[in-house]
Amino acid sequence: MVDILSQNEIDALLTALSSGEMDAEELKKEESAKKIRAYDFKRAVRFSKDHIRSLSRIHENFARYLTTYFSAQLRTFMQIKVVQVEQLPYDEFIRSIPKTTILNIFEAEPLKGRMCLEVHPNIAYAMIDRLLGGVGTNPSNVTTLTEIETMVLERIFTRAFDSFKEAWKSVIDVTPKLTALETNPQFIQIVSPNETIALISMRTNIGDFSGMMNLCIPHVVIEPIMSRLSDHHWFISEKKTEKNPVEIEALQKRIHNTTLPVVAQLGNSSLSVHEFLNIVEGDVIKLDKSIQRGLTLSIGTKEKFIGRPGELNGKLAIKIEEILNDEEGGNEQ
Q1: How far apart are CA 119 and CA 180, in angstroms?
Q2: pTM of the entire predicted model
Q3: Positive/negative CA dihedral, 14, 18, 21, 22
Q4: What pLDDT is stored for residue 6 in this prediction?
């Protein structure tokens, strides 16, 4: 990132140059001197800033989908938020997570290779407690999962990967599938130790407990679609996106089958409480609308038509005589 000088720093620099404390020629030589930057081949840079931004955008949606899904399944509020997207060697990721944790290994066809969603034990055990009828507490000194607990986690995370599918829909249609659930990171080797991965860290809060969910995506897995992660591709895709005819037809069908109340208003009148209590059969209530004027028909809360009362096939009916535009009768009641 380029450093920007403040106004005070600029003034001090100009004063030093004018007084001779600094030599402009020496500054030029330093600027033109060849700069050498150290490069660690064990931490190969495979993802550009453009790619990192796109991955961050995708998985912010993923975090929102997961928040909705887990909150519904656990019947309690759960918040998931992306806090960092970085690239690092796979071996460094494995060494950074707890020795006992929850590792969901999954595939996402047509992408080749495996990915991993690591869930901190605090979060995983709180989930289990909620799903088994508890209040979401985290038991202490638990090192292994029972068969029942493993099945409970497999079931909830199998459906959780539907959120991954939705988040990636704008880039590629994938079919995620949970292939394994492990608790020991040393037993998981989805890529070589020096392979670069994209690590999406998501802070997770459930009740009084908080922890991290880390999504590990090896570079080799998404390398075939890296070109789709550029801002240019996203811009072009958004411009060319067309609505699915099937979705349009389904939406139109739902709209056509929607029911709305239709009310024909004869008019209004004001009565005192005494007059209302003393109404008897044969009394006439004077309305504020002339009999010569048609009745106003309201669709929902908006006045849309003027009509005349009548009878059709032995039933009361209204004949539409005029359609009100928005200026004449479109005000909400």
Answers
A1: 14
A2: 0.59
A3: positive
A4: 67
Spans of the chain, pLDDT less than 70: 1-7, 20-44, 138-143, 231-244, 326-333
Please give the backbone phi and psi of residue 258, each rounded to the nearest 5 degrees, phi first: -75, 135
List the domains of the chain with CATH numbers. Answer: 49-230 (3.40.1550.10)
* DSSP assignments along 12-45, one per residue: HHHHHHHHTSS-HHHHHHHHHSPP-----GGG--
- DSSP letter assigned to residue 192: -
Please, which residues bridge with residue 163 across strands?
Answer: none
Q: Which of 160, 190, 186 is nearest to 64 (CA)?
A: 160
Q: What is the dihedral of CA 109, 111, 114, 118, to 10 degrees?
A: -90
User: One-letter amino acid identity for 259?
Assistant: T
Instruction: Look at the chain and count its residues.
Output: 333
pLDDT at 219: 92
Find the helix or strand (DSSP H, E) in which 61 lies: helix 49-74
Per-residue confidence (pLDDT) for residue 228, from 0 to 100: 85
Q: What residues are paired with 80 via a beta bridge?
A: 204
Alpha carbons 156 and 117: distance in angstroms, whole number: 13
Sign of the torsion formed by the C-alpha atoms of 150, 156, 157 and 159: positive
Contact 163, 62 (CB under 8 A): yes
